[in-house]
């Protein structure tokens, strides 16, 4: 979307649209031609997201199928499943933290760099794009995809625990 927007703006600048609509009584500084950003490979993130969705569906089905047996299951089985699920949020943490903010370690959401405490989703990727640090954004895509894969493994393990209750 950003590539298309910049291409369109550059086309309007070259065609003189901004100069033509500029009010001579209150002139505005005309925008400058910008370099079109490179394509970022989101495939790892999309693939990881799809794997997580499949794992969540597996867990949902295993949970529904195991529901009648949960009441009679050994407490240790339920405790094992609950301990796994308690780790779910931690799978989305990176010890190195976010670029320029290592104290924020959650890769899926964090306060924005310029927004105070207002949350930003996928902050490393999003802020890399917003700040035109495209190599950084692409690296953050990979980090986030790996975090989603860790989450997928955990959800699949919990689903496996539930499936064994059948």
Low-confidence stretches: none
Mean pLDDT reading: 93
Shape: elongated
Count of DSSP strands? 2
What Rg is obtained from the alpha carbons, in whole angstroms? 23 Å
Strand line-up of the largest beta sheet: 1-2
The main sheet comes to: 2 strands, antiparallel
What is the helix/strand order? HHHHEEHH
Distance between the termini: 47 Å
Strand content: under 5%
The percent range for helix content is 55-70%
Structural class: mainly alpha
Our count of helices gives 6
Search tags:
166 residues, mainly alpha, two-stranded antiparallel ribbon, 58% helix, 4% strand, elongated
Structure in words:
By secondary structure, the chain is mainly α. A two-stranded antiparallel ribbon has the order 1-2. The protein starts with a helix and ends with a helix. Helices cover 58% and strands 4% of the residues. α5 runs antiparallel to α6 (134-163). The mean pLDDT is 93. It contains six helices and two strands, in the order ααααββαα. The chain has helices spanning 2-14, 17-21, 43-70, 75-86, 123-130, 134-163, and strands at 109-111, 119-121. The protein is elongated, with a radius of gyration of 23 Å. β1 and β2 (119-121) form a beta hairpin.
């Amino acid at each position: 979307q950003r590539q298309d927007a910049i291409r369109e703006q550059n086309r309007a600048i070259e065609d003189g649209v901004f100069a033509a609509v500029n009010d001579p009584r209150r002139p505005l500084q005309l925008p400058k031609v910008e370099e079109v950003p490179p394509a970022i490979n989101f495939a790892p993130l999309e693939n990881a997201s799809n794997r997580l969705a499949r794992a969540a569906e597996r867990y949902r089905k295993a949970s529904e199928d195991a529901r009648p047996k949960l009441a009679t299951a050994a407490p240790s089985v339920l405790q094992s499943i609950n301990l796994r699920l308690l780790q779910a949020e931690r799978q989305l943490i990176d010890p190195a933290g976010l670029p320029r903010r290592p104290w924020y370690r959650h890769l899926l959401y964090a306060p924005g760099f310029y927004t105070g405490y207002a949350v930003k989703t996928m902050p490393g990727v999003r802020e890399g794009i917003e700040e035109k640090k495209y190599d950084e954004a692409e690296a953050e895509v990979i980090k986030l995809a790996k975090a989603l894969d860790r989450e997928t493994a955990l959800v699949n393990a919990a689903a496996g625990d539930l499936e064994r209750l059948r």
